[in-house]
Amino acid sequence: MRRSMAIAVWERAVVCGAAGLLFASLSARQVAAQRFAAVAVSPSTLDSGDSAGTASLANVGLKALHGCQSFGAKDCKVVYAVENQCVALAIKKSPNTYAYGVASTREAAAANALAACKKEGTGGAECWIEESPCANDDLRWQSPLPLPPGGTPGTVDPALVGFWKLNVNGGIWVWQISAYGTYTLHSEAPDNTPPNNGTFMTNNGHYTLHASSMVWDDQGTYTMQGSTAVIMTGKLGTGTWVRIAADPGYSGQPLVPALGPASEPITIRR
What we know:
Largest sheet: 8 strands, antiparallel, barrel
Strand order of the largest sheet: 7-8-9-10-11-12-13-14
Shape: globular
């Protein structure tokens, strides 16, 4: 892949940062308005890391690099860094392939990364999104993944379509279920649960879940509690998920919070 201008800028920023000269030519107002995101990958192992939400190009690159290196890979490198945008990393094994995509939304960046990944290599498994940080993501939590493309309409109970939360470990898990038979889940709790996505199907009160971004399969039962809550029982036990937003589909439109006492005000990061 071509060495991007963004990476060259990032490398220069690291040197300047070490000398105490980082962004010396920018006004305080300009620096405050800038936020960055970056992804890193190991070409040999496809381990990866990301970082987002910082106001320093040097820091966001180093954090993404350290995240990749934490898995033990020795050849991690920053693939791309962006300012006030989203960047996604797509990978494919057998043969090892990776590519990135950039856009103003997480979904669009992921679509661009998947398209680039499919062009980079031939044969082997399908490409999937491994990282997808946006510059405006909340620093406290890992960046969520977007809904995966594809899926089959009509494979999910319409009552489950939308965004749900589960109170866990001093925070919440946020789960989006689409009408197309795909899902995404991320944690906003201090439990290091990795964001993941994949396929989700239901049939007569039973569900089947398969993660495509990590090794995880689950199946179990669910019982609706009106339209604002559902009791799910699976491998991790039984929990009550509460609806927090309507389903925006693939339109990229702002989410519309559900009304009523079951919907506590929270921020869903796109």
